[in-house]
């Protein structure tokens, strides 16, 4: 929703860069005291109502919410060399959901990767953006070119880069561009591949001249987060560059309350065909099977290896059974369980078949496995009824993880974990939930019993461990024991999660429960999603 002051500013005549102001209070997180950061603070002070500069480590949810927009910026390089220490921002995506945030340059790409936003680096990003904005035809320009300040400078026409034409031969021979900075900074800006546009909660804004393709985005929005990929000293901003940055601030603020519904997890399945057609002709027959093994873990058929021109027809025959292969983080697989079901995983018929099978047999192993893999929001109990009730609401996303999703569902939604392995007479009851960044466990102990938060003699301390092949890593586990080192009654544990290789979330919780007279043997509960 665009707020009234933005609409009012749109009616103003063109202004000099020094006269451009927007009534926002900005929190600028960077490396205070550097020449680069000081320059941006000075620029923001001259163009906004208020700016406060802080170090990354000072950021808290409460501080962020006290300002209209959070800007996260910084330098990845010292001169021509990359810094060895990676920036850490002590905030989780869930703590910023709906708050306007602008992520700048390559550092913004790194932070996007941490939060798995549309601007993620991963397989998609490139620290190779020059300070030249590509100006599309008027009918294709995003509102950021107009609101609140019209970018009406005369563009310069340049030859379309050769790399662009290799990716897309249909591009025009020339492109219109505007300089964002007066000179080329020593550190380039950042772009990310444009396939995030398949996400309903993200939008493409603009590109810039880079070494990859015209399809790589220099500006984009995901929920209330805006990536502004250009990088350079604020004092070097051109008139068009100053307007572009202020318009990006306004864009983030105009989308306050917009939520990130999908994390940018993987690439669309069509990339398998595109990669193969681009790489296979450059390799001999014997090289293809070996060199392209990473691209399809289940292997390309001999006919496709013999003749790459047959790849499109083969791709169409398996398209509906493809997904990215999580352990490889770059390759795909033909899902044999999906083939067994006989329905394309992104088709409504897939959901209908799962619903039918689970109505007939609620413990159908194939249907339950595919339900957990492709419809994570669906409950196992009453799954058939749930699928039938939501059939016309669910949408499928490759980029968001090869899953079916409900519109409006937050990316940081905590999903319940299944708990098994506890004996009927066990004095401990466990409930658990997790999203992509946090594991939350509720431990409920019967009165008079306790667990151990630290090792005591021969007694066993409570511990968490991930199952082999799990797609996550655990952060530090803090156990809030009392003065005896005991855990009693009701205890909540919050454990950070980090994406790793593998698939799914499965872990074991081992513990020893004791009362004042005796101890039970060590027991292990299994939790999985």
How would you portray this structure in words?
With 529 residues, this protein is α+β, with helices and mostly antiparallel strands. It folds into four domains: 4-12 and 23-254, Class I glutamine amidotransferase (GATase) domain (Rossmann fold, 3-Layer(aba) Sandwich), CATH 3.40.50.880; 270-334, no CATH class; 339-405, no CATH class; 415-528, Immunoglobulin-like, CATH 2.60.40.1250. The strands form eight sheets. The protein has a seven-stranded mixed beta sheet, sandwiched between helices. Strands 7, 8, 9, 10, 12 and 13 form a six-stranded antiparallel beta sheet that branches. A five-stranded antiparallel beta sheet has the order 20-22-23-28-26, with no helix packed on it. Helix 13 packs antiparallel against helix 14 (365-374) and helix 13 (348-360) packs antiparallel against helix 15 (383-390). The chain starts with a helix and ends with a strand.
Q: Looking at CATH, which topology of the largest domain would you report?
A: Rossmann fold
Shape: globular
Average pLDDT taken over every residue: 92
Alpha-carbon distance between the termini?
A: 36 Å
Mind telling me the CATH class of the largest domain? Alpha Beta
Main sheet, how many strands, which sense, barrel?
7 strands, mixed
User: CATH architecture of the largest domain, please?
Assistant: 3-Layer(aba) Sandwich
By DSSP (H or I, 4+ residues per run), the number of helices equals: 15
Round the Cα radius of gyration to an integer and report it: 26 Å
């Amino acid at each position: 929703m665009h707020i009234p002051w933005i609409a009012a500013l749109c009616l103003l005549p063109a202004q000099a860069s020094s006269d451009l102001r927007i009534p926002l209070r900005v929190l600028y997180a960077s490396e205070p005291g550097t020449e680069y950061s000081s320059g941006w603070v000075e620029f923001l002070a001259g163009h906004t109502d208020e700016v406060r500069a802080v170090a990354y480590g000072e950021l808290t949810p409460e501080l962020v919410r006290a300002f209209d927009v959070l800007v996260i910026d910084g330098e990845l390089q010292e001169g021509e060399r990359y810094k060895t220490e990676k920036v850490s921002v002590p905030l989780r995506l869930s703590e910023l959901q709906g708050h306007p945030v602008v992520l700048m340059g390559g550092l913004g790409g790194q932070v996007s990767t941490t939060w798995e936003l549309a601007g993620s680096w991963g397989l998609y990003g490139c620290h190779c953006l020059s300070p030249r904005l590509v100006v599309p035809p008027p009918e294709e320009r995003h509102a950021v070119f107009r609101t609140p300040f019209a970018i009406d400078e005369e563009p310069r026409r340049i030859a379309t880069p050769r790399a662009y034409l290799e990716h897309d031969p249909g591009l025009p021979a020339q492109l219109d561009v505007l300089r964002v900075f007066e000179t080329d900074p020593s550190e380039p800006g950042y772009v990310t591949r444009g396939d995030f546009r398949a996400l309903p909660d993200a939008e493409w804004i603009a590109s810039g001249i880079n070494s990859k393709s015209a399809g790589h985005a220099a500006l984009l929005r995901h929920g209330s987060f805006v990536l502004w990929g250009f990088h350079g000293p604020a004092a070097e901003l051109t008139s068009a560059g100053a307007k572009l940055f202020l318009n990006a601030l306004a864009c983030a603020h105009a989308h306050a309350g917009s939520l990130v519904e999908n994390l940018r997890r993987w690439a669309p399945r069509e990339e398998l065909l595109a990669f193969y057609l681009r790489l296979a002709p450059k390799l001999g027959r014997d090289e293809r099977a070996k060199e392209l093994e990473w691209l399809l873990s289940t292997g390309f058929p001999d006919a496709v290896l013999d003749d790459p021109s047959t790849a499109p027809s083969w791709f169409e025959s398996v398209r509906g059974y493809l997904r990215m292969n999580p352990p490889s983080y770059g390759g795909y697989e033909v899902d044999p369980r999906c083939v067994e079901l006989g329905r394309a995983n992104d088709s409504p018929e897939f959901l209908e078949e799962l619903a039918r099978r689970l109505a007939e047999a609620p413990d159908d192993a194939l249907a339950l496995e595919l339900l957990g893999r492709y419809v994570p929001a669906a409950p196992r109990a009453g799954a058939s009824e749930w699928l039938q009730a939501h059939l016309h609401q669910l949408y499928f996303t490759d980029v968001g993880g090869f899953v079916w999703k409900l519109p409006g569902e937050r990316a940081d939604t905590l999903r319940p974990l299944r708990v098994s392995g506890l004996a009927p007479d066990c004095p401990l009851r466990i409930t658990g939930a997790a999203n992509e960044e946090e594991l939350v466990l509720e431990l409920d102990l019967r009165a008079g019993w306790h667990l151990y938060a630290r090792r005591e003699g021969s007694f066993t301390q409570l511990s968490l461990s991930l199952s082999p092949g799990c797609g996550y890593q655990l952060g530090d586990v803090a156990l809030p024991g009392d003065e005896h080192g005991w855990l009693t009654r009701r205890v909540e544990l919050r454990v950070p999660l980090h994406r790793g290789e593998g698939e799914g979330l499965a872990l074991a919780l081992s513990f020893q429960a004791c009362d004042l007279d005796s101890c039970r043997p060590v027991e292990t509960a299994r939790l999985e999603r």
